[in-house]
């Protein structure tokens, strides 16, 4: 894909048609998207750990949206509940294609990445718990090493995936998606203070209705989707990840000794931007 040659034009002026086509084609390329995500994450990590980190926090906590609709949310909230929902939708579509018509349509082939994902969750959690138990540390963060950040996993896969066999790509995609889904379930069950099982049951019933005849058109499907979202929202599961300050497991044991006992909050460690 060769970049079009351009003549002199105004700064921030309208691109010509060949240049617009070039930019659109580049943005559709998975490799470009993966590189942009990794570069943005590195830039945010550096920004959040510099003397001007207050500016990062102010941007992160900036609220925008119609307050009358209850959508006056922070940019962090929009990214976590809005953009990530679209991301999981796209990842789910690709995974479904692999399970229906791709390399994972054989149940035996699909079982292998699922087993690998479960083992990839259990082993890090056991190692974390064992090390902290022997060292006298706190085991409250046992769920943290179980999660595979699917966004970064797929970004790396997009960068290097062009040279990988399709079967290996499908395996890694399934492993990342299944690992992340089970990690979300762990967070929702163990790191939520008030879990409304009645609301969760309503969401499950809404999903079960999809096994029957499905409505056609947006207006017909919107009520079912809205009902499931309302029930999930009312259920109250943690959705961003375990926050050691706000969400603790129900069997919490406060750390009073160990190598981290004398450290202040986040003492000496780079804070990952959220």
From TrEMBL:
Region feature Disordered, mapped onto this chain: 233-274
Record's GO cellular component terms: plasma membrane
Primary localisation category: membrane
Listed InterPro entries: Na/H_antiporter_dom_sf, NhaA
Any single GO BP term: regulation of pH
Compositional bias ranges of the Basic residues kind: 247-256
Keywords linked to the UniProt accession: Antiport, Cell membrane, Ion transport, Membrane, Sodium, Sodium transport, Transmembrane, Transmembrane helix, Transport
Comp. bias (Gly residues): 265-274
A Pfam entry, by short name: Na_H_antiport_1
Membrane topology listed for this record: Multi-pass membrane protein
Listed GO MF terms: sodium:proton antiporter activity
Localisation: Cell inner membrane
Transmembrane regions listed in the UniProt entry: 31-48, 110-130, 181-208
Protein name as it appears in the record: Putative Na(+)/H(+) antiporter NhaA
Organism: Streptomyces aurantiacus JA 4570
Lineage: Bacteria, Bacillati, Actinomycetota, Actinomycetes, Kitasatosporales
């Amino acid at each position: 894909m060769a970049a079009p040659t351009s003549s002199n034009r105004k700064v921030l002026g309208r691109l010509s048609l060949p240049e617009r086509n070039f930019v659109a084609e580049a943005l559709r390329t998975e490799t470009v998207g993966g590189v942009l995500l990794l570069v943005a994450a590195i830039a945010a990590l550096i920004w959040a750990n510099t003397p001007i980190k207050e500016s990062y926090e102010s941007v992160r906590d900036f609220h925008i949206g119609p307050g009358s609709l209850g959508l006056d949310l922070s940019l962090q909230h929009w990214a976590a509940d809005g953009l990530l929902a679209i991301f999981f939708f796209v990842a789910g579509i690709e995974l479904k294609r692999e399970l229906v018509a791709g390399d994972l349509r054989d149940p035996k082939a699909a079982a292998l990445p699922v087993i690998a994902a479960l083992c990839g969750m259990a082993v890090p959690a056991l190692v974390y718990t064992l090390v902290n138990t022997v060292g006298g540390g706190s085991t409250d963060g046992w769920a943290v090493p179980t999660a595979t950040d699917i966004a970064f996993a797929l970004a790396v896969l997009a960068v290097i995936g062009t040279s990988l066999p399709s079967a290996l790509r499908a395996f890694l995609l399934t492993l990342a998606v299944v690992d992340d889904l089970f990690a979300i379930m762990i967070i929702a069950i163990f790191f939520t203070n008030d879990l409304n099982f009645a609301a969760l049951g309503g969401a499950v019933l809404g999903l079960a209705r999809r096994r029957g005849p499905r409505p056609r058109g947006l207006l017909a499907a919107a009520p079912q989707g809205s009902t499931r979202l309302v029930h999930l929202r009312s259920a109250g599961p943690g959705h961003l990840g375990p926050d050691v300050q706000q969400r603790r497991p129900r069997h919490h044991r406060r750390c009073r000794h160990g190598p981290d006992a004398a450290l202040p909050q986040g003492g000496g460690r780079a804070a990952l931007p959220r």
